[in-house]
Design a protein that fits this description.
- By secondary structure, the chain is α+β, with helices and mostly antiparallel strands.
- The chain has helices spanning about 50-65, 70-75, 95-100, 180-190, 245-260, 270-280; strands at about 1-10, 15, 20-25, 35-40, 40-45, 45, 110, 115, 125-130, 160-165, 170-175, 195, 200-205, 220-230, 240-245.
- It has one domain (about 1-280).
- Strands 1, 7, 8, 11, 14 and 15 form a 6-stranded antiparallel beta sheet that branches.
- A hairpin with a 5-residue loop joins strand 14 (about 220-230) and strand 15.
- The radius of gyration is 20 Å and the shape is globular.
- Bound molecules: zinc ion.
- Zinc ion binds near residues 68, 86, 87, 93 and 96.
- Zinc ion binds next to helix 3.
Length: about 290
Amino acid sequence: MTGKLELTFTVVSEYLFVGSGAYEFDPNHNNQRPDVWYTFYRRNGQICVPGTSIKGAIRAIVEAISNSCISQFRRSREKVDKDHEPCRDQNKLCPACRLFGMTGLRGRVHFSDAFPEGQVRPQIVKIGELWEPRNYSGRKFYEVKRVPQLTDKRPQRNFRFVEAMSEGTCFRATLHFENLSEAELGLMAYALGWKTEKGTFDHAFTPKLGGAKPRCFGAVKFDPARLTVWEVQKNGLLQLRMLEGDAVGAKLVRCMEAASRPETGLFHESSWRRLVEGYQEKTDTCPREMY
Ligand SMILES: [Zn+2]
């Protein structure tokens, strides 16, 4: 299948922060606002979550739920066991490398940049300095917890300020795919946090995007909006088929069911169950300075 899946994602943790590495500076803050804060990523002056950032987050989930190798980016931060050594042979690729590509091989899935819907109201939020857990091994996924309220805007040691989008903000994005099998699209659907139960479409967990993940930021809920697929007709011609509403969910259910068939070798259910458990929302507050 070749086509696109248009989707929305809504911030469900208190904040989402996707930085650009840039910061703003206000020397005349008079303690009314912070003097330095890290700005949210922008394209043409508009707040935006870059497609590469969504792709990185979803790839990490695909890697975890499909017995794939662990990409270079994550290897530098995590201890990896032998069965997850990176793919080298282009004829023997793991599911994640086949979908997302690897050095010298273009991927077949891409995300567009995602822009927020409606009026956007970014907020400057104070967070503790990022702190890497010491026993950082294996695949670690952050839990969704509450962010402590830090209303004091004065500069303070071991804290920083970030420009963040609040809970409830909705973004629009598009997943473009080329030559995917139904099962491969199903694996993507699982990685976007969806599941199927008794043939119906449902949410299983909320993936995390952006920076400051250890600070209980970045959980988003994906929803499918419209699926457009180029289909080969009996006469050999391509036809565009568009699905909306419940029809998208029904199609994604079929794809997830296809991915679950063991012979596809794509979906690793026990890893997925473990991941879903790790994502379940916790009601306790994020520790202030230490994750
Ligand atoms: Zn691989």
